[in-house]
Amino acid sequence: MTMSEFAELVDAHYQALFRFGISLTRDANLAADLVQETFCIWAQKGHQLRDRTKSKTWLFTTLHREFLSQRRRAAKYSDEPVDESTAASCDEEPDRQMDGQRAVELLGFLEETYRAPLALFYLQQHSYKEIAEILDLPIGTVMSRLSRGKEILRKQMTAEASSAPKNILQLDPGAIKHHG
Amino acid sequence: MDKERARFILSSFRPNGADAHDADFTQALQLALEDRELGEWLASERAFDSAFADALGSIELPGHLREDILTSLAIERGDFPQAEDSHDAGMIGALATIQPPAGFRDQILAAMEASAPAPKNVIPFWKKLGIPLAAAAGITLALFLTRQTTSVTTVDPAHFAESGPISSSIVQASFVKTYEAPDFSLEVTQQDYEQLVSHLCSCGLPHTEDLPDGLRHLQGVGCRELIVDGKHGSLICFNGGPDGVIHLVIFRRQDIAERGPFDKPEITKRGEWAIARWQDPDHAFLLLGNVTPEKLAGMF
Questions:
Q1: Would the ipTM clear 0.95, i.e. be above it?
Q2: Same structural domain, B10 and B114
Q3: Can you state the percent helix, strand and coil of chain A, rounding each to 5?
Q4: pLDDT (average), residues B34-40
């Protein structure tokens, strides 16, 4: 693979990978590290993938595995038990648009079992079958987690709307498109 | 199929309609068309999903993420050797003088032969592993030897002769590695810019008469060829006085993947280097110096 072919692969996927990474970690630096690590693993092992049409799925699978692996390592060397829902840091960049920031925050309220499939679903790059492949889950489990995860998300937003109206994200499609 | 089942299935239906032709959704979508309540639920669900997807898609990316990834990949692939500082070079030299005990290689081979299972038709795992390891060792050795004997280029042009356009971040990283290598040298040392251009012209390398204003007043230091990923470019060094040496890297525009900027240079800071990047119809330029970005911007 030439460097320009690498660049093509990077250009095609790094943005979605970063958004998936930040949905998992809620930290821009950790997400950037994950993406970089994912492509480095590709540089080392990508040639083993015979079906190049699977490269996108391979990259997302690898990023997710790296995330889980880092979480396990962090838990192993930490005295504190890892709370699946809040272990990622909340070091948000001040210049990030509120819409995206809020979406990441809302995903962060979910347990990790729901967060990863929902993040992949909302990135809209993968069908539910591909999400099942990436997360190594049965298809039915993914469908169930998408359905249940959205329900939790709506409840969370409703609860926030009733307790702190000024802080809610107006997920009105028309309003969000203004921020493009 | 009842409505609850349809809701469950349609929860996995992507809001951008990418699943519209997926047969798995056909029956549930048909039911949503026929059942008003289900149809309204689906419309609401898609509006919510679409808004959330838009919000997630609006997350801004770190400015240099792409360049950082490409640079890491280039290093991972060994497209250009890592520069060593003088301490590294000293350590490498010292380690290279260490000799294994006499007969060590033969002892290893004998031990391997004794340990190896009876030969089969298939290639043993350790041999499969050994081939890439041997190749990697060979490449490493070749790179090391090349660095000892070659003073001009650090990247073998033939290796990349058929590759496509390259990223300016790769050019930038390659320049830094080349410049910071202990054996860095210039092909021509000359203060007169016109004579430097004349040399580059005679070598068929890209050059320009249209320098940024701030460079016109600086004396030249020298020039050389810079080969990155099989693409041939020019490096011209200027004496920036108290600001140190300012480096102008020129490649043909078609050799560089990015397009623009054309009107105004894009100025960034990477480590100790301030970098200005711009293009004209025929060339892609990088101006680099160990100065502040403001200082570099003042040259335009």
A1: no
A2: no
A3: 75, 0, 25
A4: 92
Structure tokens that stand for A154 in this block? 């709506």
Q: pLDDT grade, residue B148 (50/70/90)?
A: very low
DSSP string spanning A37-49? HHHHHHHHHGGG-
Cα torsion B261, B262, B267, B273 to 10°: value is 90
B114 and B28 belong to one structural domain = no
- Note whether B46 and B73 are same-domain residues: no
Angstroms from A124 CA to nearest CA on chain B? 6
pTM above 0.80, yes or no: no
CA neighbor of A142 nearest in space, from B8, B24, B38: B8
Ordered strands of the B273-279 beta sheet: B188-189, B219-228, B231-239, B245-252, B283-289, B273-279, B266-270
Q: Which residue has the tokens 């272990």?
A: A87
Pick the last residue of a domain from B58, B73, B93.
B58
Phi and psi at residue B106, to the nearest 5°: -65, -35
Judge if B52 and B155 occupy the same domain: no
Residue B54 forms contact with A (CB below 8 Å) = yes
Number of structural domains (chain B) is 2
**Structure tokens of B170?**
């790769």
**Averaged pLDDT for residues A158-174:** 56
Mark yes or no for CB contact A4/B164 under 8 Å: yes
- Looking at the structure, tell me whether residues B48 and B125 fall in a common domain: no
* A69 contacts chain B (CB < 8 A): no
B53 and B74 part of one domain: no
| B84 and B134 part of one domain | yes
B157 touches chain A (CB under 8 A): no
How many CA within 13 A on the CB side of residue A14? 26
State the residue range of the domain holding B44. 3-58
Residues B133 and B208 in one domain: yes
